[in-house]
Amino acid sequence: MSRQLIRIEEISRSYGPVDVFKDVSFAVDEGDRIGIVGHNGSGKTTLLNTISRRDQDLGEIEFTDGLRIAYLTQVRDIDNDATIEEELARKGRQFLELEEEIAGIEAEMGKPEFYDGDWQPILDRYAELQQMLASSGGANVAGRARSILERLGLGHHPLEMKVNDLSGGERAKLALARQLVGLDGIDVLFLDEPTNHLDIETTEWLEEFLIEFPGAMIIVSHDRYFLDKVCTRIIEIESQMIWQYKGNYSEHLRQKLANESALDDMIATVEKKIKHTLGGLQHMKRNNKYDKSISAKHKMLERLQRQRKALKARVPKKRKAMNFSLKSVDKASMDVLELKQVSKRFDSLDKDILKKADLSIIKGQRIGVVGGNGSGKTTLLKMINGDENISDGVLEVSPGVILGYFHQDHRTLDFNLNPVEQIQRLRPDMAYGDIRAALGRFQFAKEQVKTRLEDLSGGERARVALLKLLLEDNNMLLLDEPTNHLDVDAKESLEEALGEYEGALMTVSHDRWFLDQVVNWILELKDGAIKLFRGNYSDYVSRR
Questions:
Q1: What's the CA gap between 494 and 499, in Å, rounded?
Q2: Which helix or strand (DSSP H or E) is residue 74 part of?
Q3: Residue 236: closest CA among 249, 254, 223
Q4: What is the DSSP letter of 4?
Q5: H helices of 392-457, where?
Q6: C-alpha distances in angstroms, 289 versus 285, 293, 296, 300, 411?
Q7: Stretch 9-19: mean pLDDT, rounded?
Q8: How many CB atoms lie within 10 A of CB 136?
Q9: 199-208: b (≥16 Cβ within 10 Å) or e
Q10: Are the C-beta atoms of 274 and 301 separated by less than 8 Å?
Q11: Rounded to whole angstroms, how far apart are CA atoms 535 and 516?
Q12: Which of 226, 234, 423, 458 has CB atoms 3.0–4.6 Å from 245's, for a disulfide?
């Protein structure tokens, strides 16, 4: 039987009058790899922080004696003004806790009265801490982190290079390398959106790293493919409660569907019994049978009604789904666009992003673009959209093709406008009531539609950008990381809408689950060359 590491018993957490979660109970055992899922704002990160810091409002969180934890945050803790070498040398929380305890013992050892008592157990603990610090790399954080960085493909950068000169993806790799040092001896690893800003290759490396990690893990992630590969348990937060499932993300979906179906059947059976009992009572009253049997019927009815109430309380409350469809403008011919011997270079780089590349796209093709950070995926979309010039060759967009572009930084939006004003600018012919209804289908509450886009979250701005795309005429979509900032519910709605889209589609995405649902071709960009694979992402992985 596995040793219990953390016991969580009926904990609750709130911010002012708002309850985040109530009466949450579960245990973390040795070897557990727990994924925490739920929509944006459901309290996933709050639950992670509450457990790791033990700062619940009510209930009890108990750590086993000597438990060592480490934390990988979704906000990468990184100093942009430092050099790579300086950043690699910074120590994570797991080292600081060890060093604080060592410093505390050393301070006690400096007092004469320390040696008057039984000091041997304390010296034994001191020796143990020193050994733990040495074995986990605390004396050589920079060296260990540099080794990980080399495995992540960043060993070519000079150590004196400023962090600020790295790309966003490279900075994410640097922070990841530093945070993964010193996990030897860690019992529980807390991870909050660990795949954010990582390219697919790095995410796959992280998956293998975590699968081999011997300790327990609690992971908050929207990356469904990652949760499938790494997790052995899923906890879903919904309506301030948790629902637990054995297995990975896909198994959780199957169990959830089966549970909801079984619950619906149980409620229907109880309601049928209630109807039958009520009919029996009415029949007895019509025949003036006011004896012990009618009293028993009343008690049975009360029991059944209590049972129905209890069953309905177990039904998760459904959030209003993001509801939209994407219509493509009809195009007579099959040809969409063609690249002939196209090259693209930047003066700041020592090699071509594209090198004499050829590509033909026809109506109905749905292409997922993959490649490492800096391989030119977004640049390819920008060239097709006309935002970036090609260096050599010919890029032809066929007559009748109308492009729709989703930027990952939402630059097609005016951040000084609110959502209603943004849609009014695009569609001045659209009635105010229709705009409000459309925003309502995209999960915007009354107060949000009057908030400037600058003050909305990344996920909320992404929904406005998607609605804008919906209202534009197009027959080829260029989507740059469309699932960034979206929770799972919104991703599923987007996948369903794109599945019905009849035009051509090209998307850059690190979301492998999304690529599996949406695309029928994979375009790999590597070393300036384009290579096409028929099928979705999983098909590509099996054949590459």
A1: 8
A2: none
A3: 249
A4: E
A5: 419-426, 432-441
A6: 6, 8, 12, 17, 76
A7: 89
A8: 21
A9: bbbbbbbbbe
A10: yes
A11: 9
A12: 234
Q: Can you list the positions of beta strands (E) in 51-173?
A: 58-63, 69-72
pTM to 2 decimals?
0.77
148 neighbors 173 (Cβ within 8 angstroms) = no
**CA-to-CA distance for 426 and 412, rounded, in angstroms?**
11
Q: Which single residue is written with the structure tokens 């915007």?
A: 444
Return the pLDDT at 207.
94
Contact 496, 480 (CB under 8 A): no
Helices (H), ranges, 455-511: 458-471, 488-499
pLDDT in tens, 122-176: 777 767 666 655 555 545 555 666 777 777 777 777 778 888 887 777 777 877 7
User: What is the distance between the alpha carbons of residues 160 and 83, in angstroms, rounded to a whole number?
Assistant: 5
3-state percent helix, strand, coil for the chain, nearest multiple of 5: 45, 20, 35
- Contact by Cβ (8 Å): 380, 525: yes
Q: Which two tokens stand for residue 57?
A: 């409002």
d(CA 339, CA 341): 7
- Which residues, including other chains, have CB under 8 Å from residue 204's CB and lie 6 or more apart? none
**Dihedrals phi, psi of 202, to nearest 5 degrees:** -70, -40
What's the rounded Cα separation, in Å, for the pair 465 and 415?
Answer: 11
Contacts (Cβ under 8 Å, ≥6 apart) of 433: none
CA atoms within 13 A on the CB side of 539: 15
Amino acid at 367: I
Tell me the two tokens of residue 139: 């004396």
- Tell me the CB-side half-sphere exposure of residue 237, using CA atoms within 13 A: 28
Q: Please name the amino acid found at residue 36.
A: I
